[in-house]
UniProtKB/TrEMBL annotation, chains A, B:
Domain HTH arsR-type, residue spans: 4-103
Gene3D superfamilies: Winged helix-like DNA-binding domain superfamily/Winged helix DNA-binding domain
NCBIfam families: HTH_metalloreg (NF033788)
Organism: Oceanobacillus limi
Name of the protein in question: ArsR family transcriptional regulator
InterPro entries: ArsR-like_HTH, HTH_ArsR_DNA-bd_dom, HTH_MetalResp_TranReg, WH-like_DNA-bd_sf, WH_DNA-bd_sf
Pfam families: HTH_5
A GO term, aspect molecular function: DNA-binding transcription factor activity
Record's keyword terms, sorted: DNA-binding, Transcription, Transcription regulation
Amino acid sequence: MLNTDVVNIEKAAAIFKLLGDRTRLTMMKILENNDCCVCEFVEIFQASQPSISQHLRKLRDIGLVEEERRGQWIFYSMNKENEFFPFVQQVLSQIPNQDDKLKQLEENGSRISCC
Amino acid sequence: MLNTDVVNIEKAAAIFKLLGDRTRLTMMKILENNDCCVCEFVEIFQASQPSISQHLRKLRDIGLVEEERRGQWIFYSMNKENEFFPFVQQVLSQIPNQDDKLKQLEENGSRISCC
DNA sequence: TTAGTATATAACTATTTACTTATATAATCA
DNA sequence: TGATTATATAAGTAAATAGTTATATACTAA
């Protein structure tokens, strides 16, 4: 239980605040294993595009994710260079995998709607 | 990194929401190693008594802490019987110890104000 | 039993948050 | 080029949150 990846408590609280939203927490779990574009999240969460973009913006502002444009789409991925990445990774490892949500998109063909 | 203490994502989000407040996160770190009464937290955080009580209430409602009356005082402690205790413990282990805040009280004599 | 201390809770207020609608930007494709 | 698609962002709104003040409850000690 000894841990060397000790992290500033103020920053930790800010990260937990972001992870304290079910949509964002699920996003982070999906991004653990997949790059995703905005429109996929829109499908997965059945939410509006601005709502999804705003969640992603918060995750990006604090450094947890990064974006990369690929043609028409912008893909989001975990920011593995972030100094808090090991902390976040350890936290997320305790939460069940959410890749089934992405699989469902693939199965009903929604994923190819963009990617 | 394999983890068997996998926890419902909805509940995990609710717990992170509570830990996403600096006061409550620090409280939880202190309670990791110490039982504490309300008046001590009032001193530590230089906050009002109702504000502290309301934070503790939220932590209790979700099952993270429990209370025990000892005479005039009510002591709070980690609820080790809670099904999410291993999860919370693992999460907290990544955050620096906050016992110095309690030590400061002892040093300037404030802790004995009640306990 | 009365006064004092510790705590909880209710009611109110200010701030923050998540979402909506509307619009702007940027890339693609006909 | 103009239309379409993907995304970001701004502005507004409703709900949630954290704090305040006021008051109630419970224990202790004189």
